[in-house]
Each structure stands twice: as C-alpha cells, then as structure tokens.
Amino acid sequence: MLRRTVLGVGAGLMLAAKAAAQGAVAAAPKARFVVFYRPGPAFDPAKRFEDQPGIKAHPRYMQSLLAQGRLVVGGPFLDGSNTGLAIVEAGSLDEARAIVEGDPTVKAGLQQVDVKPWLAAFSRTFADR
C-alpha cells in the first residue's frame, strides 16, 4: 500500500511538472513564477549595485509586491554577480512578466528579467496551501 501511495504521489508530481512546463500552470490562480534578475544595458559595471542611479526604486517596488501578496520571496545572490531571484504569484506567465516588468529599474534598463513557471514540488516553506 505504501509503495502504491509513493508511486502515485511521484506520478502526480511528474504530471504537474509536465503541465507546468507546457504552460498549464498559468490557469492556476496561485501559480508561482521564478524571476531571475541580472544587470541590464543601463547598468554601469564600474559602480556597485547600490550606487546605480535609480536602483533604490527596486526594493521599494519589491516591498509593494510583498504588500500586495504577489511576492513570495526575493533577494540578491551573494556572489557579487549583481543578480537576484524572486518568486512571484500570478494568474499566468504573461501576468507574472507584466508584474516584474513594471519594476522601475527594469523599465529603465538597470535590470533585465527572465521569468519561468515553477512548481514547488518539495518544500517546507513554499508548499501549496
């Protein structure tokens, strides 16, 4: 019985991951999307991240997403690459892109984003509610 249950859960996770990869995750009301931030064309590599003109708008924007319940978690990588990651909740991939592209630093070209649908299949923190 335990073996069938484990196999059933594993098969369910595989199907969910396949559906997410094919865009079906966009239909879910609380779909999650991973956002990768990297320097954009207006980013000056001679300056530190926090010294970029206009960069202070980014944490304010992220804080507003958090207050709206759109941002699950976000922050910079600590490897000096001036890159970061966020997980946002949205109704579709297009909506998630619109949310993160609304960031003033993305609009100004200080940062660029890549957005991917994501399934939190294994997590204590991000388990579906």
How would you describe the overall organization of this protein?
It is a single chain. It is globular, with a radius of gyration of 17 Å. 34% of the residues lie in helices and 23% in strands. Strand 2 and strand 3 form a beta hairpin. The protein has a single domain, classed as Dimeric alpha+beta barrel (Alpha-Beta Plaits, 2-Layer Sandwich), CATH 3.30.70.1060. It has a 4-stranded antiparallel sheet. It has 129 residues and is of the alpha+beta class. It has helices spanning 2-21, 57-67, 93-101, 104-107, and strands at 31-39, 71-76, 84-90, 111-118. It is built from 4 helices and 4 strands, in the order αβαββααβ.
What is the number of helices? 4
Q: How many distinct folded domains? A: 1
Instruction: Give the overall shape.
Output: globular
CATH architecture, by name, is 2-Layer Sandwich
Q: In CATH, what is the homologous superfamily?
A: Dimeric alpha+beta barrel
Q: Which properties best describe this structure?
A:
alpha+beta; globular; 129 residues; 4 helices; single chain; disordered N terminus
Question: How would you summarize this macromolecular structure in one to three sentences?
Answer:
Helices cover 34% and strands 23% of the residues. The chain is α+β, with helices and mostly antiparallel strands and 129 residues long. It has a 4-stranded antiparallel sheet with strand order 2-3-1-4.
